Each structure stands twice: as C-alpha cells, then as structure tokens.
UniProtKB/TrEMBL annotation:
This is Ubiquitin-conjugating enzyme E2 2. It holds the Pfam family UQ_con. SMART domains: UBCc. Belongs to the ubiquitin-conjugating enzyme family. It comes from Hortaea werneckii (Black yeast). Transmembrane segments: none annotated. The active site is at residue 160.
Amino acid sequence: MASPLGRATSSPGGSSSAAILLGKQFKQMQTDTDIRGISVGLVGDSIFDWEILLMIDEEQDNLYEALQDEDETKGSAVRLAPNMMLLIVRRGVNRNHEGEELEIGWRHGERMPGWLTRSLLGGCFRARIAFPDSYPLYPPKMTFLTPMFHPNVYQSGEVCISILHPPEDDKYGYESAAERWSPVQTPETILLSVISMLSSPNDESPANIEAGKLWRNDKKEFRKRVRKCVRDSQESAWD
C-alpha cells in the first residue's frame, strides 16, 4: 500500500533487535494470505511506523453471522472474534513471535452485538501504529486517522485498550497487569483486539465520554454517529 499518511515522529533507527523483530512481523503480515480486510504499509521508510487500513465489508459480516450460529449449535466454549478478518476462522489461534499459540476469542456465553458490526460495514478506516524503541517490552501506540466515534477511542483518534497499556498495575484498579501489554503480543494480536473492541465497546471507563453515554443510553443516535464515520472514511480512504 502506498504511504499517504506522512512521516511519523518516532526516533529514527531505534534498537536493532526491535527493528529486526518488526521487520519479520511486517513481512509476515504482508504475505499472510489468511488475513482479510487489513492492509499494512510503512510510513516513509521507518519500520517503527506502520500505516493500517481496516476495510469492513458485507462478505465478512455474513460469514461472521454464519459462524456465530454454528458456534452456538456446537456449544463451543470459545466465541470467535468479529469476522472482519478470516485469520481466526482458519487458525482458531494466533502465534506470538516466539511461536507460542495465543487463543483469541470470546468467553463462553458472550455474543457480539451484530447491529454494531453491521453499522461498521463499508468502513475504510485508516490508522497508524507507532512502535517504541523498547518494543516488544513496551507497547506501541495506535491512532485512527479517520474519524472514529467510539467509547474506547479518544477524540484525538488514539486507541484506549488494555492490550496497549504499559505492563504495570493500574493505579485506578480498572485493569489487572495480566490484561495489559506483554512481550508475547504482536501487531497481529493488536489489530485483532482493536477489531473486537470496535464491535464490543468497553464503557466502564470510556475514553470518549459522549460516545460512552450514547452507547449506554441511545443506541439509535450512537449508530447514526458511527455511520457518519463510515461515510467519512469512504471519502478519505484513498486521499
């Protein structure tokens, strides 16, 4: 994908070990045919700054609904993550950079609100992931460049999700250390978690207070705001 997003501001070069690891992970994501609906590229020539395009289409939503029905019929103990990507469908698990398997899914009994998944259909959301020199010991920062009205996305576009928070105890008690970043996570698991977040907001401590209130109290207005973001994303996706 071409680089329409401009150059990021992270320090040039970075640590050699982080650069080598990111190079491998970037190549894997570009060549992995299991990934659908996600395009990755570099900002300029920096391996520490990635540009992302999340594309959400009807085919993915239809397959998601079918898999949800099949999952309930079989009584599976794990719910599939939103089917905007076929990665989980084909693998069932993801692997970190050391080859260990990581389960990605929903706790037993949970069902994703399909209406919100459908509200995102047609979206072409641009984002940037900036990795620190200390990666993978510390997490990157992900920021949507396309307007995103969501309880867990700041008005600046920065994503607020546990997996991207530093590996330490939360002084406010909202998150445990186990929910936060760990070096076993990868760009792939980050994007899977963010996609899950988009369709299943956490409104306990919203980054966008207005979005959190509408999500809880006025689903109709919330959906209207989300659909506007989708339309805006379509207009700006290829700028």
